[in-house]
Amino acid sequence: MAYRSPDQLRDIRGLVIDMDGVLWRGDTPMPGLVAFFDLLRRRPIRFRLATNNPTRTPQQYVAKLAGMGVSVTEDEILTSAVVTAQYLSHESPGARVHVVGTASLRQALADHGLQVCDNGSADVVVVGLDPQLTYAKLAEATLLIRAGARFVGCNPDATLPSERGLLPGNGATLAYLHTASGVAPLIIGKPERAIFDAALAAMELPAGDAATLGDRLETDILGGQRAGMHSILVLSGATDRTMLATSAVQPDWVFDSIEELAAAWP
């Protein structure tokens, strides 16, 4: 596969950037992280940090990046938890929502006027990555879905990059619940368009002037392409060259890391 020349990056005016596996792995920043953001500010290249991981709030991501020497604002961050809450507040305002996930997901839903409930019936079951996942939580969610609650997933990522390797992601939980309930989830996060459309609107750019930058072919790259954007894959997270070579989803540019990308940017 012949990918585009780095010289063609000069036409990109905005980036929708994934975080896990791109900017860091676990709590370890990727080499060249500070220099990469210096490049974005200097050009300037507009950006939004868009993650399928719903376990942190925008404020927490701001603090995490600050600890790595990078300054961003809450407005420059979009999470699947926030986008899921926005979707449900529009489609099912005031709904009773049962949550499998972290406090940040619960807070995002409550902030958008949804009733987060732990007991009794629910209109919607929302599932996000839950590091404290138990059989009891899976059982309760299964019963609610089988009783008629809508089944909504924040994101379909099967794995999550970490310093130890790839760990089970939210997609694994969704697959479990799909099997147990017989109901397929409605996915809100990447590769669906909601996050990309929100990022483009925030950057005030048409899709053709922007690129998605990520480490996953099936979410970051495919989702950006569906939204009409260009696409940049980095091989620092969930995708290696063997996986890339055998995938039907192919990006416009491929780099080993953001450090290599920044060095190649014209």
Could you explain the architecture of this structure?
The protein has 266 residues and is α/β, with parallel strands linked by helices. The protein folds into two domains: 12-80 and 191-253, Rossmann fold, CATH 3.40.50; 95-187, Rossmann fold. The protein is 36% helix and 21% strand. The strands form four sheets. Strands 5-4-1-13-14-15 form a six-stranded parallel β-sheet, with helices on both faces. Helix 4 links the parallel strand 6 (96-100) and strand 7 (115-116).
Please give the domain count: 2
The oligomeric state is single chain
Instruction: Choose one word for the global shape.
Output: globular
Strand order of the largest sheet: 5-4-1-13-14-15
Mean pLDDT across all amino acids = 96
Beta fraction of the residues? 15-25%
Radius of gyration: 18 Å
- How is the main sheet built? 6 strands, parallel
Instruction: Count all strands and give the number.
Output: 15
| Structural classification | alpha/beta
CATH superfamily of the largest domain: HAD superfamily/HAD-like
SS summary, helix count: 10
In the CATH hierarchy, the architecture of the largest domain is: 3-Layer(aba) Sandwich
Into which percent range does the helicity of residues fall? Answer: 25-40%
The SSE order reads EEEHEHEHEHEEHEEEHEHEHEHEH
CATH topology assignment of the largest domain: Rossmann fold
